[in-house]
């Protein structure tokens, strides 16, 4: 995992490639990669709306430091918090798509 200042470059995140398939360390690395991917997505949305972390935090009733930790992949985020960020912070609606073999299900919150 490469660092630039305090930020990790997402495209260089290892995702457990050096661990045995199905091992706890590989599964943990994949989870961390997904957390980082979500944080990067939220940061891009925030910046596209020309919002600061402080403004987003105020809109959602949380702290700037928590927004920073989420965006940098340093904090896991609860689903209720994610919904609040999207709804109150960005004025949007969260939609999840679940892909299982031959079936796709979409849920909106």
Describe this protein's structure.
By secondary structure, the protein is α+β, with helices and mostly antiparallel strands. It has a single domain, classed as 434 Repressor (Amino-terminal Domain) (Orthogonal Bundle), CATH 1.10.260. The chain is built from four helices and four strands; from the N terminus they run E-E-H-H-H-H-E-E. The chain has a two-stranded antiparallel ribbon with strand order 1-2. The protein has a two-stranded antiparallel sheet with strand order 3-4. A hairpin with a 2-residue loop joins strand 1 and strand 2. It is globular. The N and C termini lie far apart (33 Å). About 5% of the residues have low confidence.
- Please report the first level of CATH classification, the CATH class: Mainly Alpha
- Main sheet characteristics: 2 strands, antiparallel
What is the 3D form?
globular
Poorly predicted segments: 6-10
Strand order of the largest sheet: 1-2
The total beta strand count reads 4
Give me the Rg, rounded.
15 Å
CATH topology: 434 Repressor (Amino-terminal Domain)
**SSE topology string:** EEHHHHEE
Question: Would you spell out the secondary-structure blueprint of this structure?
Answer:
Blueprint: E1 3-4, E2 7-8, H1 24-48, H2 53-60, H3 64-71, H4 79-90, E3 95-100, E4 103-108
Antiparallel strand pairs: 1-2, 3-4
């Amino acid at each position: 995992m490469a660092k630039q200042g305090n930020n990790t470059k997402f495209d260089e995140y290892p995702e457990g490639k050096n661990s045995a398939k199905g091992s706890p360390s590989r599964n943990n690395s994949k989870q961390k990669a997904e957390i980082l991917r979500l944080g990067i997505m939220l940061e891009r949305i925030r910046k596209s709306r020309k919002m600061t972390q402080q403004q987003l935090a105020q809109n959602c009733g949380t702290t700037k430091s928590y927004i920073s930790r989420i965006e940098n992949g340093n904090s896991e985020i609860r689903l209720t918090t994610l919904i609040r960020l999207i709804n109150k912070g960005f004025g949007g609606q969260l939609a999840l798509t679940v892909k299982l073999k031959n079936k796709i299900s979409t849920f909106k919150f």
